[in-house]
Amino acid sequence: MELVVLNTSGKETGRKVNLDDAIFGIEPNQHAVYLEVKQYLAAQRQGTHKSKERSEITASTKKLKKQKGSGSARYGDIKSPVFKGGGRVFGPKPRDYRFKLNKALKRLAKKSVLSQKMKDNSIKVLENLSFEAPKTKEFINVLNALGLESKKSLFILGEVNKNVYLSSRNLPKASVKNYNEISSYDLINAGEVVFLEDAVEKFQENLRK
């Protein structure tokens, strides 16, 4: 399949890029997408939660009353979980929530999201941007020309471009990333995906490995 390359004014340049059907035209695998998004979100968790258990409470260890003969339940010390201020039973401990997925599944997830985006006509190809200096106003002009001023958008670069990145940094609905930094979560979170012309083949080559 092919997509027309647009210029920064939103007009067709007459050039086209080829998109691999094995990447942009497959039947989406929703479970693969779910797993990669779950992995991404799990990796964002700090995992620093902690509560004190019985052995970590600072309090008297004296037995509150004799074991038998009181007519009520047996009590230990004041640190027992059944008392206010006592330790917590099976409380949270610091842990790492990250887990691994194999590379083939992660590639399948990205292909699935891109194929769905293609069906929804939510993918565009833009000629390469070159800002002489970081200018948010220039980036906003590009968004307006593409009709993305009110939509969440993800711009995928073929190489690191600091001026383009800095120009978009203050815009809450626009995100700019290099082609090798993209996750399925980034693609899903964006309403529209915009590939810069030189990023298309690099991104596809990355998914063919």
Automatic annotation (TrEMBL):
UniProt xrefs under PANTHER family: 50S RIBOSOMAL PROTEIN L4, LARGE RIBOSOMAL SUBUNIT PROTEIN UL4M
Gene field: rplD
Pfam families: Ribosomal_L4 (PF00573)
Gene Ontology biological process: translation
Keywords: Ribonucleoprotein, Ribosomal protein, RNA-binding, rRNA-binding
Biological function: One of the primary rRNA binding proteins, this protein initially binds near the 5'-end of the 23S rRNA. It is important during the early stages of 50S assembly. It makes multiple contacts with different domains of the 23S rRNA in the assembled 50S subunit and ribosome. Forms part of the polypeptide exit tunnel.
Annotated stretches, region: Disordered: 46-75
Protein's name in the database: Large ribosomal subunit protein uL4
Subunit structure: Part of the 50S ribosomal subunit.
Family: Belongs to the universal ribosomal protein uL4 family.
Organism name: Riemerella columbipharyngis
Gene3D superfamilies: 3.40.1370.10
GO MF terms, alphabetically ordered: rRNA binding; structural constituent of ribosome
GO annotations of cellular component type: ribonucleoprotein complex; ribosome
